[in-house]
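User: Design a sequence. Structure:
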């Protein structure tokens, strides 16, 4: 089944063929990370850690379980998650006095501790993050990385003296996001979610969405500005320079394993995965082209090139399996290895190595004397090409409309008066999700697509994954 024919079937087929995840674990939606898939996720985590550490965040690791007493302190928060959480009611044969929530997200786990950690203005800003698993009872059809019940998750949590300081943190988060997405070659839109779709307890939420090949949008993360909505019920206060006690302003920023799902959907083709070089477990695969009488010389040269690449920090692998070259090409194409090097006797005689790019299919040669800079240059060209191509597709996925007649299966841009009544009516009558309004303001003059009133507000909608 081709990617353009049936995206859902193609996606499931590619995940299985590339051996990224095993869904046969006996709890639905709690899949096993296989070695290749987990390596991809670990390299994504490394990118996240690098950017968070560089901006003064400290990594922590909080307990998995949260007492019900703490979970219920922010009323909007529990209302938003109450139907999705897993409860622990017994320890052995003993019924617990206080039920425990298995972490759906970490606000209610962290903030009782923040009230102990933050005392003075000198303790601010507090900027921490963790990479953990969260658990939500997903009732829709599960799909590896995109819709699961145990979610590998990054989340940062910050405390600030003022609302302005917290807003500056949101802006920093967007810079961090841009740097990570450049490495993953994932395009995204920034949408301020509607009041009924924002994170439970947030002042506002910015959704991070990327377009899938079927025209639907996949939310890959979100950024939340809380103001004092959590610091008041959790009593997170600081003493300012005048000796006055004030509640902190807070933000959070989170992304999940959906980043892996997004890379599969955005970049893959009918041959398999196409992985961005920064997170590919194998960046370069080396295939020796053997014939009678030259096998030892070719293998020796191929092994030397593998060592040279590895010594320079490039993740290279020499494939010495007893298989035909074509079969090896097929296997590594499924796994999305960015660059293939082929070495035969003719290449050795000409002091070159033949290359083939997974992203474009382009072939050529690299001088053996310049193998490291040559490979590094091509890997960067691959990354840039994948990034530019993905952004082009993301932009082409948006269609401006001024009526609800014959809405295409794309991301829709239209006028909206901003009222909840018109928003709900649009969603209900068209079976679409209102993604919200652009975080970066867009000029617009027109009419609300529902009520027809004049508006300068533009909104976006799509079917979601």
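Assistant: Done.
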């Amino acid at each position: 089944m081709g990617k353009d024919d049936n995206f859902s079937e193609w996606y499931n087929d590619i995940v299985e063929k590339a051996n990224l995840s095993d869904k046969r674990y006996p709890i639905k939606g709690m899949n096993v990370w296989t070695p290749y898939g987990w390596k991809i996720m670990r390299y994504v985590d490394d990118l996240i850690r690098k950017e968070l550490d560089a901006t003064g965040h400290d990594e922590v690791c909080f307990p998995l379980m949260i007492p019900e007493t703490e979970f219920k302190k922010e009323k909007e928060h529990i209302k938003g998650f109450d139907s999705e959480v897993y409860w622990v009611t017994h320890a052995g044969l003993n019924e617990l006095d206080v039920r425990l929530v298995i972490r759906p997200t970490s606000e209610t786990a962290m903030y009782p501790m923040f009230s102990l950690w933050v005392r003075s203005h000198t303790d601010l800003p507090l900027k921490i993050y963790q990479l953990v698993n969260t658990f939500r009872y997903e009732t829709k059809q599960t799909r590896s990385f995109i819709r699961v019940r145990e979610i590998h998750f990054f989340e940062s949590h910050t405390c600030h003296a003022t609302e302005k300081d917290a807003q500056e943190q949101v802006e920093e988060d967007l810079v961090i996001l841009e740097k990570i997405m450049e490495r993953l070659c994932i395009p995204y839109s920034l949408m301020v979610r509607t009041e009924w779709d924002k994170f439970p307890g947030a002042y506002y939420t910015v959704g991070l969405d990327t377009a899938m090949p079927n025209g639907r949008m996949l939310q890959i993360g979100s950024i939340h500005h809380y103001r004092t909505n959590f610091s008041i019920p959790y009593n997170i206060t600081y003493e300012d320079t005048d000796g006055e006690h004030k509640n902190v302003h807070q933000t959070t920023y989170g992304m999940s394993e959906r980043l892996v799902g997004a890379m599969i959907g955005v970049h893959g083709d009918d041959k398999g995965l196409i992985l961005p070089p920064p997170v590919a477990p194998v960046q370069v695969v080396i295939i020796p082209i053997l014939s009678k009488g030259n096998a030892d010389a070719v293998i020796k040269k191929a092994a030397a090139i593998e060592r040279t690449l590895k010594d320079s920090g490039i993740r290279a692998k020499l494939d010495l399996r007893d298989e035909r070259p074509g079969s090896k090409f097929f296997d590594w194409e499924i796994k999305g290895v960015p660059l293939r090097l082929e070495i035969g006797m003719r290449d050795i005689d000409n002091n070159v190595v033949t290359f083939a790019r997974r992203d474009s299919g382009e072939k050529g040669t690299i001088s053996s004397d310049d193998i490291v800079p040559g490979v590094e240059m091509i890997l960067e060209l691959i990354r840039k090409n994948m990034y530019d191509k993905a952004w082009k597709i993301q932009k082409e996925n948006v269609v401006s409309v001024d009526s609800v007649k014959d809405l295409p299966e794309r991301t829709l841009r239209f006028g909206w008066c901003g009222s909840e009544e018109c928003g709900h009516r649009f969603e209900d009558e068209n079976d679409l999700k209102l993604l919200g309004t652009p975080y970066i303001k867009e000029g617009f003059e027109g009419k609300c697509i529902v009520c027809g009133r004049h508006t300068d507000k533009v909104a976006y909608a799509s079917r979601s994954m």
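The mean pLDDT is 96. The chain is about 35% helix and 30% strand.
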